[in-house]
Amino acid sequence: MGDTEAAAPATGRRRELDAMRLLVVFGLFLFHSALIFDPTDDYYVKNPDTSSVVTYAAALCVVWAMPLLFLVAGMGSWFSLRRRSARSFAEARLLRLGVPLVAGTLLLMPIPQWYRLRAADPAYTGSYLSFWGEFLHVRLAAEEFPFVLEGAGRRPSFETGQLWFLVLLLTFSLLFLPLLAWMRGPSGAGALARLGASARRSWPILVVPAVLLAAVGAGLELEEGFAAWSRWSYALFFLFGFAVAAQPAVFAAMRRLRGPAAFLGAVLWIASFALYSIADREGVDPLTSYDGVSMLFRATFGVTGWVWLVAILGFAQRPVREAPSTGEGAASRSARLGAWGNEAALPLYVIHQPVIVAIAFTVVGWTAPSIVKYIVIVAASFAICVVLYEWLIRPFRLTRFLFGMTTGRTPGGQLARSPLDFRRARS
Questions:
Q1: DSSP 392
Q2: Which of these, 53, 100, 160, 245, could form a disulfide with 75 (CB 3.0-4.6 Å)?
Q3: pTM of the entire predicted model
């Protein structure tokens, strides 16, 4: 999501990565809508009736969804650095990630917090404009790097919401830039070549990252606000993605490992759940405690995340050739939909949660079954976000800039036709 070139491997475009990125973004509509019905989560708006089934379903998603986004973003960084200098890469990251982070935080993130206040206190009558000033009351919190601002005042409200992903991705892109530039150079090329050679044996691709993630998981707390992963585990996924993109042999190894990785991932997920339950019954928080069971849970959880990504990338691989330049058959429509998803993923990610919360604020008050409410929230929020993207964000240069999109025009001076427009091109 951080790079439009994220799906382009060394030899031919891998549109399956575009599809996975868009799938995760759409999955966030399902996930965040489900939190409205989760009894354990302090979401902005809650349904009167909740179900623990939602908790277990959410646990199936957090183990792989956001790690996959960071992995794909790391891949995109490799391809971006292949055609840019380090300075140009840093400037592009600031525009691509920094601008939507600032714009989204200032313009959109107050919305869920305002609805939280209204849902918690029906007597609250403050206007959105008055709350906006309250939201911007912040203080420095350097100890929470890279989240260096936090809410202050009588009722602290400032947050980056789901834009924590952009905070971390921008931080990793700049913090690790010297390492990324080295890996792109002659010295780093030798190390990456050894990585490609090890991929011929397959198992190092599965084991080495898993060991690193297990160590980080055991030694650091998992952060519930960041989809139940340590922020520094995400750093590893980002770096793994960069290294993987540099060596196509790794993709082949993942394809060979996909079956065993899927089986092992299922076993490890069950083991993680069992360890979590044991620690929870002992009255400790397995995400943050340093007793033996909790640390073993976090280590197992880290390994599970990597093994699942290997399986997902292995099963997803299906090289797609570029569509013919003439005619618009199924392959052409598929390519255009992939291009749409590649460009739309970041804006949809930025706007989706405020829209979900605004819709849920009304829907949870209906006298309807929870499943009906859930379907309405998901369908309505996704449809509204797509309309907002197509009609308010995509067509205009200012909004494209604010949401991290390119602002270029076609040679004729017009924006390219939307990939959602499936009308047959005129001959």
A1: I
A2: 245
A3: 0.89
